[in-house]
Amino acid sequence: MxxxxxxxHEHKVSFKEAVLHGLAPDKGLYFPExxxxxxxxxxxxxxxxxxxxxxxxxxxxxxxxxxPETELKQIIDxxxxxxxPLIEIxxxxxxxxxxxxxxxxxxxxxxxxxxxxxxxxxxxxxxxxVLVATSGDTGGAVASGFLGVKNTEVVILYPSGKVSEIxxxxxxxLGKNITALEVAGTFDDCQEMVKKAFSDTELENLNLxxxxxxxxxxxxxQMFYYFFAYKALKERQKQIVFSCPSGNFGNICAGVMAKRLxxxxxxxxxxxxxxxxxxxxxxxxxxxxxxTIATLSNAMDVSxxxxxxxxxxxxxxxxxxxxxxxxxxxFDDNKALETIKLIYENSQYITEPxxxxxxxxxxxxxxNKNEAVGIFLETAHPIKFSExxxxxLDLKLQVPNQLKDxxxxxxxxxxxxxxxxxxxxxxx
Length: 428
Ligand SMILES: *Cc1c(COP(=O)(O)O)cnc(C)c1O
Description:
single chain; alpha/beta; Rossmann fold; six-stranded mixed beta sheet; 18 helices; binds pyridoxal-5'-phosphate; amino-acid biosynthesis; pyridoxal phosphate; Thr_synthase-like
């Protein structure tokens, strides 16, 4: 299997090269050259497959012969070492809880898969430096996924003062091969610096790669849980609508990929916060990112989502199908808070600012699709946004096991202001 750059379809590389480099030299995202739908016999008997077996079926064509079967299955097994419960919180409305991993965020799936692929490829290789820009959750998931992986240094850039306390502790307290750079700026500034480093010829001698969802090894495994949810709901024989709280649009784009593999999903909703570039684009046809706005759902504070280019690629010859499959709605913080309260009052179910945005998108879409069942992705554990959630609901959340020791640890970060500082750090 080869991957081409979205900026130049003639530039093609292997799975391994795409994982090791993250982004193509021309800054284009890598995209699989072809996709083969899985057999009907697989979908007809999916209930007999374990999570690991399902994941193996959907990823194997994308890895090709880059990783042998036994090792790939081992990587998947380690990646999926936690549960993906699907909870019906109202009639026909399900929460797909993706937050049972080590850092309580869905990004654990991609980060764990990618770190293990890199570790496999790095057996003989020189040291790789993994760069990651985070608006909140990526940093922690990547730090945890990559901790102690040999021949790998991880450098995390995060916007100072714009991530929650737990998020900051998760990415600044691990030490070892993990370094956190605290940037005076927004997530988009962080992402810009990472992109710039990749195309900086003076840094060519460093083996840089990215662990953002632009990296195919982080992006593609996010398909897995769409299949798990389908397996759980299959016998209801209803149309399924998925709603994803979206920031960089990697998660929802993986869902669209799952559909390309034949998974029967009838519709996708990309729910955003006030950073509404995509919903505006779908309305008026102009793609015009505004300045990023800080919101309660900070992991979605992205105004120029990288993975939207992949979604456009998936539908490039078929605008009609795109509008049939895909809707996007924005919701502001007030609406999110109000709805966190409402869901708790009606169902005693606790959401948080990201998941609730997905819920809102789902409800809106289902207004005119009353035959369907809906699934929203609950992408983070409410404890990660405890201040917001506890204030809204006037209660105290239980601290899950994964966080018990975190508050005893000491934050360590290096402050930087601009690209020059960043480069100086990398060149040391
Ligand atoms: C990263 C993140 C998102 C957004 O996911 P994308 O793949 O970037 O669209 C949503 N919710 C949470 C909690 C996240 O950490």
